[in-house]
Amino acid sequence: MSDSEDPTPQSEDDFDFEEDITFEEEDEQPKDTIKRLRDRLKECASQKQEYLDGWQRAKADMVNNRKEFSKERERISGRVTEEVISSILPVLDSFEMAFADSEVWNKVDDQWRSGVEHIHSQLATALKLHGVEAISPEEGNEFDPKLHTSVDTTEADNPDADDSIARCEKTGYRIDDRIIRSANVVVYKSN
């Protein structure tokens, strides 16, 4: 049977049942008819198995494609989330810069300052709901190149402080185990 032939009958009329059942020749013996019918039955069973195998392969392919599609959808969704959050990080940086200059920040009207702090709090809460964590190491924490980027070094007074963080210049962020942006830090180095 060639690949272009459709072995599936379109209707019952496509089968010639009577031809299979009747004697092909008038002098054909019942033994010959039984043998011919057995051969036809074997052929049908073989076709049935071929169709069943093909159906099972197609079903397995469909299940695998669904799993791959689901993984790809999750990957794309995670990537989109990272991109959106990355675009929001400069806003958080602006809040941090405003809060960092405490002399100027304390001179601002109390109600206005309270409103800005509330907006910052809302933004931070929304990001936490999406699994975003700040990476803001403190002085003395060990430098971890997976989480931190060294933007400068400063001399360590104590040799034990070598390769530890002197200060955090810019907060980093991560979602679960994926780093969106590493924290920019200054690292102690002893001479």
Give a written overview of the molecule:
This protein has helices at residues 17-21, 30-100, 102-107, 110-129; strands at residues 132-135, 148-155, 165-170, 172-175, 178-181, 183-189. With 191 residues, it is of the alpha+beta class. The protein has a domain at 133-191: Head domain of nucleotide exchange factor GrpE (Nucleotide Exchange Factor Grpe, Chain A, domain 2, Roll), CATH 2.30.22. The strands form 2 sheets. The chain has a 3-stranded antiparallel sheet with strand order 1-4-5. A 3-stranded mixed sheet has the order 2-6-3, with no helix packed on it.
Short description:
The chain is an alpha+beta fold and 191 residues long. It contains four helices and six strands, in the order H-H-H-H-E-E-E-E-E-E.
Tell me the name of the CATH class of one domain. Mainly Beta
Q: Could you tell me the number of beta strands?
A: 6
The span between the termini is 83 Å
- CATH H level, superfamily name of one domain: Head domain of nucleotide exchange factor GrpE
Task: Compute the number of helices.
Answer: 4
Low-confidence stretches: none
Rounded average pLDDT = 85
Order of helices and strands: HHHHEEEEEE
CATH architecture of one domain: Roll
The spatial strand order of the largest sheet comes to 1-4-5
Strand content: 15-25%
Measured on Cα atoms, how large is the radius of gyration? 37 Å
Report the biggest beta sheet as strand number plus sense, adding barrel if it closes.
3 strands, antiparallel
Helical content (DSSP H or I, runs of 4+)? 40-55%
